[in-house]
Amino acid sequence: MLIAYDPIYAHPLPEGHRFPMVKYELIPAQLLREGIITENQIIKPAPLEEDIILQTHTLHYWRQLQQQTLSDKEQRRIGLPQSPALTLREITISRGTIDCALHALEHGVALNVAGGTHHAFADRGEGFCLLNDFAIASNYLLSQHLVKKILIIDLDVHQGNGTAALFMGNEQVYTFSMHGDHNYPFHKEVSDWDVPLPDGMNDNDYLKTLQDCLPVLINKVKPDFVFYLSGVDILETDRYGKLKVSAQGCLQRDELVFNTLKKHGIPCAVAMGGGYSTRIKDIVNAHCNTFKAAGEIF
C-alpha cells in the first residue's frame, strides 16, 4: 500500500478555514505512529504538468488559477481565497492521485491523504475544490491507454456534481454518487447513477443500500479500475452531513467497498474527501480506518 502525502497543506487561510486542513498533517502522522504504514510508503508528489491539467480543465480557467485573476464571486463559490499556494496545492493533490492510480494498477490499492475534489467543473471551482483530481487522473489513465473502463464510487455525503458534469456522456467513465439528498450542492448534476439518501440514515440502512448497489455496479460497468472517494462526512458527528452513521459503520463501508473490489480483482485509488466533525480526532480516526481497511484487505 502506498499513500500520497501533500506537504503543502498549510497555505495561508483565514482562521475559519484552518481547522479542516489540519487533518492532512495529522493523518500520516497517526498512520506512522500506529505502525500502519512506514516512511517508505509515503510519496510527496510533484506539481502536475499543464498538458495533463488541460485534458480536463479549460485553458481560461487554468490561466485564472495561475494568474490569480478569479473574481470575488468565483472565490466565494469556491469558499476559499485565491493564493499561489492554494493553486500549487491543488495541482500537487492531482499529481498524487495519478501517482496512486499508477501504483494501484501494479499493487492493487493506493491512497491519497488529500483529494476527492469532486465539486470542480471544467471551467470553475466550487465547494473548496479548484481542480477535479479524479477527473484529471481518469483522463490521464485513459489517454495513456492504461485502462478501458473506469468506475468512480463517490461516497462523500455531498454529490460529486463536478465529476458528474465532466463525464456526462462519456462511456469510458461511469459515475456513481451515494449522497445526502438534502445536502450541498442543492442543484444536483446527473451522475450515471445517483442514490440520494434521507436525513438521519443509520448504519444498517446505509450499509444495506451500499451492499445492494455494489454488485449491480460491478456487473453492469465491468470496470478495470475504480476511483473511490471515501468521505467521512457521513459520520453522525459531522457538522454538515445530516446522516447518523457511526465510526464503525463508516469503517464497514470501506471494508465493503474494498472486499468487493478485491474479490473481483479490480485495482483502486482512494481519496479522502470531506470530513467536518467538531472534534478533529473523529475526522482523523475515520480517515485512518480507511487506510487500515485497505492495508488489511489488499
UniProtKB/TrEMBL annotation:
Q: Which domain of life is it from?
A: Bacteria
Under InterPro entries, the record lists: HDAC_classIV, HDACs, His_deacetylse_dom, His_deacetylse_dom_sf, Ureohydrolase_dom_sf
Q: Mind telling me which SUPFAM superfamilies this protein's record contains?
A: Arginase/deacetylase
Histone deacetylase domain residues are 17-288
Q: Which GO terms describe its molecular function?
A: histone deacetylase activity; hydrolase activity
Pfam families with a match to the protein in the record: Hist_deacetyl
Family membership: Belongs to the histone deacetylase family.
The record's section on PANTHER family has: HISTONE DEACETYLASE 12, HISTONE DEACETYLASE HDAC1-RELATED
Stated name of the protein? Histone deacetylase
Q: Which organism is it from?
A: Chitinophaga oryziterrae
Traced from the root, the source organism's taxonomic lineage reads: Bacteria, Pseudomonadati, Bacteroidota, Chitinophagia, Chitinophagales
